[in-house]
Automatic annotation (TrEMBL):
Domain AB hydrolase-1: 47-302
Pfam families tied to this protein: Abhydrolase_6
Classification via InterPro entries: AB_hydrolase_1, AB_hydrolase_fold, Carboxylesterase_BioH
Domain of life, source organism: Eukaryota
Protein name from the UniProt record: AB hydrolase-1 domain-containing protein
Naturally occurring in which organism (per UniProt): Podila minutissima
Length: 324
């Protein structure tokens, strides 16, 4: 589905809202389906969170393919404070470090700003940080919350993922050149075309270079993505320890060939914590890696919709409080 097709089916309101810690701002999209659902059921609001180095619009290919039942209510997707359009808004106040707890409080700020109730959280980070807010269900996409001893507490100059990020290309003469270049990379070749289009269209910004020439660069500065990798352990081990306490429906959606799984930490998490969840469901997206929603949006949307069909009950007057 192209951007034009998506816009013909969903109304998008783009706005900025205060973060949990001023002066940072959060760029947030609100999506509402233009054609109403045929069901009379009330649909809970949904919050979508993106993976490190990406942006809110990356969820649009999945949203477009989800069951109308689950996309008939308000949906919110926002950019982490140092990435996407939030990075552009906050360019003058970005810091030299990153605290994942702040991302958690920013999710709570979105909930409070829009007065959301019985919220369903979907994303790479919803269950990857100690989220101090109330959810009625969680869809955790290949989450990286592991025991404390798994994390590499290394300075940025010694962190392998951080260093790889700093070395990669982040500017091009145009979006056309950028897309052509990315399609030559193994990492991007496995993405669904719509996901790559979204990355190019919404993840890049026009710039004027020092010599007066024009071009495009990533909205998320390489340094910000790198320090987010380097500080990935802040808070994630806390959410790992708290997983067994959740008594709401939790969907663990993982990639069959995810590099997270290949280091055995992923399977350790499943064995130690996920099996203890009272209302947990594990689904594996065949042939997909860590960024499974970008590679296989249809399969991801089908599994998320099916899980919510089984797990979420609108009759529940007061959902359990999920505090990771």
């Amino acid at each position: 589905m192209s951007t034009v097709d998506f816009q013909s089916r969903f109304k998008t309101v783009r706005q900025s809202v205060p973060s949990s810690t001023p002066p940072f701002q959060l760029a947030c999209n609100t999506y509402t389906r233009i054609a109403p659902s045929q069901t009379n059921e009330s649909t809970p609001p949904m919050i979508f969170t993106h993976a490190n180095g990406f942006h809110k619009e990356i969820w649009e290919p999945v949203i477009a393919r989800m069951s109308p039942r689950w996309t008939s209510g308000p949906m919110y997707a926002f950019d982490c404070r140092n990435q996407g359009d939030s990075a552009v808004l906050n360019k003058d106040v970005l810091e030299q470090t990153f605290d994942w707890y702040m991302y958690a409080y920013d999710i709570l700020k979105i909930v409070d700003t829009f007065g959301l109730k019985k919220t369903i959280g979907v994303g790479h980070r919803v269950a990857s940080v100690p989220v101090p807010c109330t959810f009625s269900a969680i869809v955790a996409v290949d989450p990286t919350n592991f025991p404390r001893e798994i994390y590499m507490n290394l300075p940025l100059e010694d962190h392998p993922m951080g260093q790889l990020t700093l070395k990669r290309r982040d500017s091009w003469k145009s979006k056309v050149e950028a897309k052509a270049n990315l399609l030559q990379k193994k990492f991007f070749k496995v993405w669904h075309p719509e996901a790559l289009d979204s990355y190019v269209e919404y993840g890049m910004v026009d710039v004027v270079n020092a010599d007066g020439s024009t071009g495009v660069t990533l909205k998320c500065p390489k340094f910000q993505e790198a320090i987010t990798f380097a500080h990935v352990g802040t808070g994630l081990h806390d959410s790992f320890e708290g997983m067994a306490k959740l008594d709401i429906p939790v969907h663990l959606l993982v990639g069959e060939i995810s590099d997270i799984k290949q280091v055995n930490a992923h399977s350790l998490m499943v064995q130690m914590k996920f099996d203890l969840l009272k209302n947990g469901k594990l689904d594996v997206v065949k042939g997909a890696g860590h960024l499974l929603t970008l590679e296989k949006p249809q399969e991801s949307a089908d599994l998320i919709s099916a899980f919510l069909d089984r797990a979420w009950t609108p009759e529940a007057e007061e959902p359990p409080k999920a505090r990771l």
